[in-house]
Specification:
The protein is of the alpha+beta class. Helix content is 42%, strand content 27%. The longest helix is centred in the C-terminal third of the chain and has 36 residues.
Amino acid sequence: MIELYRTDDAGTHAVDEIDDWVWIKLTSPSLDEIESVASQLQGVDPADIAAANDPEEKSRVEYEEAFSLVLIDIPVDDVRHGVSTYETIPLGILILEHNVITVCAQDTPILSPGRAGSGLELSTRLRRQFLYRILLRSALLYQRDLRCIDRQRREFEEKIKKSTTEADLMSLHEVETTFVYFQTSLRGNGSVLTRLQRSGRLHPG
């Protein structure tokens, strides 16, 4: 799916065409959608966008001639063995001179345009702020989910003290596995933030 947004004095709102200062939000994009977007942007190849949509991609920062690519892991809800749990998936952000592209396999509140004046609105005219607000939103979502995971862990541990069942042990294992995933993802995101801070700029522009 392709969604287009642009920020003006009234806030960030949907638009119909790719133009300067438009945010191109791709959610589980098809190959045709990827090629359509790439054909309208100078210096961006379909493979560049497709790479950001690869579930095996790792968190990193890359500087290309026409854009910067920032890849982070974000948390998403999941259900395993009938228990609400969480996993992480890649989110790609391509920063161009006059546009931003986001690519993610699932819709996420991290990429909600936000309400004007909320302090977390994603402005298409402020690329650095746009990027850092996505990183902040991601951190806040991790924080929320970690509280939920910790509560689940304590509940399962209390149940196991009273009566151990295979289902409870499997659920506890899922929770502990999620902790490991989150720890690895947060470490990778931290490395991305460190590199961005050291570079002191976004490229191009």
